[in-house]
Amino acid sequence: MSPEVTIQDVARLAGVSTSTVSNLLNGRNERMRPETLERVQRAITQLGYSPNRAARHLKTGHVEMIGVIVPSVANPFYGAFASHVERAALQAGYQILLGNSERDPEREQRYAEELWSHGIRGLIFGSSLLALTHLATFVEHGLSIVAFDRQAQPVDDLPIDSVTVDNVRAARLATEHLLNLGHRRIGFVTGPVRTVNRQSRLEGYRKTLADFGVAPDPDLIWEKALEKGFGDTEGVELGRSGARELLSRANRPTALVAINDMYAFGAYAGARDLGLRVPHDISIVGIDDGVLAEVVDPPLTTVRQPLAEMTLAAVDLVIGRIEGRDDGPPRHLTMQPELIVRQSTQEPSWRST
After folding, report:
1. What are the beta bridge partners of residue 69?
2. Fewer beta carbons under 10 A from the terminal one: N or C of the chain?
3. How many CB atoms lie under 10 A from the CB of residue 166?
4. What CA–CA distance (Å, rounded) separates 273 from 186?
5. Quick one: which of 175, 237, 247 has its CA closest to 205?
6. What is the pTM of this model?
7. Domains of the chain with CATH codes
8. Regions of the chain where pLDDT drops below 50
């Protein structure tokens, strides 16, 4: 916006209220009289009010921006995710606006409302909540949403696209790797299991144990049931607490599967607190394969999400919806994870009873 020209200047020249100009710029012009619309457009052009963005908005009904909502960039996985989204969006001529929601539906709703009011018509959500009904009003009004890392659910009743890794398989790969090494007492460390992706990972862990004839032991599953939040910003500390508790028990596990890499890094610290060595005394596997997985000591065995491919698919989906090139039914893309074996796992050096 030129510093010499304001929305009030446009309203004054067009003979309308500032709210009328704002409604037009934000795509709320369905009930505007054609002659009023023409006057405002003419005033914008004459005054040079945000000429490029305003012109695009008036022509397409949206600004060339994508909203990106993540739980918290305190987890480097979501920082990398946002970076990949931005790179793909810029290549397509779009910019992004990023928000951290901490998986709070009310905060996500406020973000959606604010972004919508600024003409943004496409959002990528990474919170993986069990339900997305708090976004229903925006979807009904034309907001295009892609749910990232969230498998479509039978209870979903909204036309929302999704891009995810197969989280059940991700946990299967992690658990199976430990079973094949000879581990049988395998713990699972997680924050609150109130998201689709976490439930899927816990399901994959349990199913894999059962498939190998190992009865899942509830005492080996450590879940921090927080009263508020999901443990996204506290992942390392929670992983540390979980490992300390599980590894302090008389018949402790010989291996741990962590819900993600941040919890795995915390588990490293918890093991060290007890004087245990990774992997000699305890094998640890994460999920995600973030940027730190290779540089921790020892390098972390983990399950890689194909992050670049997933984000590119999410950006392509949301832009296709925004621009009207894809008006078909919701699309749900599931990509396959890959086990990356490093030095945090080995055969058990002792057998629990």
Report:
1. 99, 125
2. C
3. 17
4. 20
5. 175
6. 0.82
7. 7-60 (1.10.260.40), 65-166+306-335 (3.40.50.2300), 167-305 (3.40.50.2300)
8. 1-3, 51-52, 54-55, 58
